[in-house]
Amino acid sequence: MRVPIHGLLSIAIAAAALASAGCESAPVAGGGYEMRNRFPAEYRTIAITLFKNDTYDRPLSGELTEAIIKEVQAVTPYHLSSEARADTILRGTVRSRTLRELSKSRSTGLSEEVQYEVVIDWEWVDQRTGKVIVARNGFSGSALFVPSRPSSEPTEIGRLAVVQNLSTDIVANMQGNW
């Protein structure tokens, strides 16, 4: 059976795309570029502990931990493992949660736009050596929600949005070239 040349080209392009997923190109000495993984290759497994929570917003730490787990699974080459068996561990603490009113209705005095802000401290540690791979204190994220009519969004909309933003940013900070 003969495969047309455009069929082979399509297969080659698809294979190259799969091979470079999760990789980036970087300049090398002497000119040119090389493909490499964006995440440190010396680690294979990660344990992600439930973030501690210094706020009264109880669901926040569980939702943040769950979002980070999903982001790590989706974006990184690392496999989740128990604390006892993992090469690395990611842990953190939710330090503060603030609802900041950005605008108010002149007619009703009710909040029209509210910024949901969260500040966390987190660290990613190599459990074999005890060395901190990446640590960020005062790491913040925010999201806007509209509690007034016609949207009438509940506070949870803001919390879920900021949780997603923080999880994406944390995993992005796990990449090389800090």
Q: What's the CATH class label of the largest domain?
A: Alpha Beta
Q: How large a portion of the residues is in β-strands, by DSSP E?
A: 35-45%
What is the level-2 CATH architecture name of the largest domain? Answer: 2-Layer Sandwich
Order of helices and strands: HEEEEHEEEEH
Number of domains: 2
Distance between the termini: 51 Å
Helix/strand/pairing category: alpha/beta
Provide a compact summary of the structure:
The chain has helices at about 5-20, 60-75, 155-175; strands spanning about 25, 35, 45-50, 50-55, 80, 90-105, 110-125, 130-145.
Question: How would you sum up this structure, described in words?
Answer:
Helices cover 29% and strands 37% of the residues. The chain has 178 residues and is of the alpha/beta class. It has two domains: 37 residues, no CATH class; 135 residues, Double Stranded RNA Binding Domain, CATH 3.30.160.150. Strands 3, 4, 5, 6, 7 and 8 form a six-stranded mixed beta sheet that branches. Strands 1-2 form a two-stranded antiparallel ribbon. The chain starts with a helix and ends in a 5-residue tail after the last helix. About 12% of the residues have low confidence.
SSE arrangement:
Layout: H1 5-20, E1 23-27, E2 33-37, E3 45-48, E4 52-53, H2 59-75, E5 79-80, E6 88-104, E7 111-126, E8 132-145, H3 155-173
Helix pairs in contact: 2-3
